[in-house]
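hiii, so i know i said id send this last week but things got crazy w the move. better late than never?? heres the sequnce for the chain we talked about at the cafe, plus the structure i predicted for it. fair warning i was half asleep when i ran it
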Amino acid sequence: MSVNVMLAGVGFFPHTVAGDKNFWIRLSPLLKARGANLTALSVNDRTGVTEMPAGFKLHNLRRSFHLGNPDRFYSSPTGPADYKHKHHRAIDSLELLLTAARNLRAIRSIVRSDKIHVIHFMDNMGPAMRFLKSRLPGVRLTNSQVRFGSGRGYGSYIRASMLGLDRTVAYTEASRDLLVKVGIPADQIEVIRWGVRPADEPPDAEAVRSTRGKLGVTEGESLILWSGFIMHIQAPEFRAAAGAAHRIAAARPDCRFLFALKPLCYRPEFKSLEAERVSVVGDLNDFQAALAAADFFFSPAVDPNVNVSPPLTWLEAMNYGVPVIATQGSGVDEVIEDGRSGYVASSIETVAQAVNAALDAPDRDAVRRSCREVVRNRFDINASAEQYVRLWASLRG
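okay and structure toks below
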């Protein structure tokens, strides 16, 4: 039995983006192949209808109200795109709620015309989700909880956003436990890991050599790549990781660090953080080629209480056989087994120990094989598609 699903989110574009919406771009054809008829709705910087690569319609809504921040969005129909977060969560939630209320008639029209059974929110869009749940009787509402915040009032925000939805999808067991802890009933939560398409073979050796040459990596050097801003890896992590890289590179002439920021996050003043064998760029033309050519992916967090979903870039790195060097946090052990499929430091202060362990590992090829095995066994996007369609079909009844 087919199921008609609307994918709803913020900053969902009909082209590859510098962010985690790539998962949904890649997942869409797999969902369709398994019986999900798709429609998409996204709060972007324009209005109108565009075509998604998988052959379904994307309905764009312009944010109805900008509370002090008119230049919030960025997108390009022909190139990289991103969504700039500049607001406090409370203001962001209010803007989205007002946008949902103002566009309710249009949303109802799409739901009727496409005979939507389930709306799945790719983001936590705050209380706007519960508002639509109350205004669309007969339509099931589900959402993916990707990020976990912290601070006072966060539990109340989660409850105000999700309590009463038909299902909330957590990407890790640790995320599920945190949702229960803040008051979301366990029977409302389902764990569906996000993933990538497992690579059949390791990256082409000649292509890797060529990329490393272009990046200035010399014979005998190990390339340690950092990227941001990605999930949980933001400005504080960038500066802390750069400081650690300075100390490590000064003591280890056998490694080279490359900090590759998303173009929209790059600032010229970041060049001041460069040092010998530590480079900072914001214009890496082919990030995937650099990722495949790296020896390690460097991704330490500052907050020891961070919950890791994990970032999609981790899975992409491991799929190439590139081990992740991270710090401990809730959910990290669901992705990385220290010393076997990556390296985990107890904190940002001790991350140099993890880097040294990675550089001095007696059998790097075994670690690389383990990375690809983890992706194949636990983070296969085909399994994600099967689980999503099964969930939505069960809610349709």
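btw The longest strand covers residues 36-44. thought thatd interest u
miss u guys!!
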